[in-house]
Amino acid sequence: MATRITTIPAVAMISLTAIHLVGINAMYGLILRNGYYDALVQVLRHPNPTLPGSTNPILTVYNGIPPLDKLLTLASVMFANVTDGSAPALSVYGVHFAGQFLGVLVVLMIEALRQGNQRTVVSLAWFIPWTCAMQMIGYGFAMPIYGIVHLWTSSSATTATATQVPVDAHVQVLPQTMVLGYIIPSIAWALPLPWNYVHQWLGAVWQGSPVWVFIIYRCKARSAAAKSKQMRADRRSRTTASGLTKAYRFAFATCAVTQLGCFALIAATSLCPSVFPFRLTISDVFLPAKFWTTESVSMVVGIHHFYQYDQYVGSLAAVVWAVALHVNNAKRLPAVMMTMRNWLKILVTFTGVSLFAGPVGAVVWLLWDRDVALLS
């Protein structure tokens, strides 16, 4: 059985719509049914609110702008148990999610820099709104919408040519940008500092990481662009390929290191129980409850399940979107049909890479492979 390539974007958009609708129920419907939302409201409405599972008072004023203060306060409560060390399974899962999300940031930045995406709602000017929505509202909520909008508006989703590849000056600075704007704030927030308010402030800084990534990128890209203008066209093309390789390799390596690191830690807690004060299993960290359950749970368990569905729904959407872009690579697949053998090859590749680097690692791999073909 074969599939006509021209129909794949439409099928992908329908699939993304279904994923989005199911995701809303799996994420927000679940926390309404399992009691997490009610518990969260009680914490926030308490006259002297404290962080879940502790006596540490909640910081409610960050910059004096009421809507932003409320948003950061909400985020502080929802992320409190991820970084305070009270729930090892949730903390390990947080590391995994953070590594996967870096891959998303890199891929979205590369897409924003493509010539075919300029003057669209997936261009660089829209990087902050999209990524902040993923961070503050939900990756699982925003990623399906992004995929639909990208496939609908972007010429790079329907025209797989070398003219869609980003300029080298914009790509080669991405690894440094992500280290400064995302990884360092993440590590700082995860440090076991004894000062409660400092820890909450570091969490607030991390919430703005998409903004820091954008600002740092613009500063670094400006100096890189000046050097690029002095290059000959053939050298600029080689530098473009090199810059893309570095960006994709960095994103893939981060996804792989965090995934394998989490697996190694989980295994170590069982193999060396005397070394760790806790024991973890794969199911403890990665297996959520059924999203239609009505069983009440603690706030720690409730937010863990929310973040699990947040990542799984968002990553499924990212995979559908990436596959749609990958198979549209007319240079690699000149035929107008996708055969069962083509689909099987993608499935095997995705499965193998996902086991090594997670679903977003597979997304990075698919788009990396697509750009390699375009530049070859």
Total number of helices: 14
For the record, the count of structural domains works out to: 1
Average residue-wise pLDDT: 89
Q: Name the helix and strand elements from N-terminus to C-terminus, one letter apiece.
A: EHHHHHHHHHHHHHEH
Give the helix level as a range of percent.
over 70%
Radius of gyration computed on alpha carbons = 21 Å
Biggest sheet: strands side by side, in what order? Answer: 1-2
Profile the largest sheet.
Answer: 2 strands, antiparallel
Could you say which structural class the secondary elements and strand pairing correspond to? mainly alpha
Let me know the number of strands: 2
Transmembrane segments: 7-31, 90-110, 122-146, 201-219, 250-276, 312-330, 342-368
Keywords: Membrane, Transmembrane, Transmembrane helix
What are its keywords?
376 residues, mainly alpha, two-stranded antiparallel sheet, 71% helix, 1% strand, globular, transmembrane, transmembrane helix
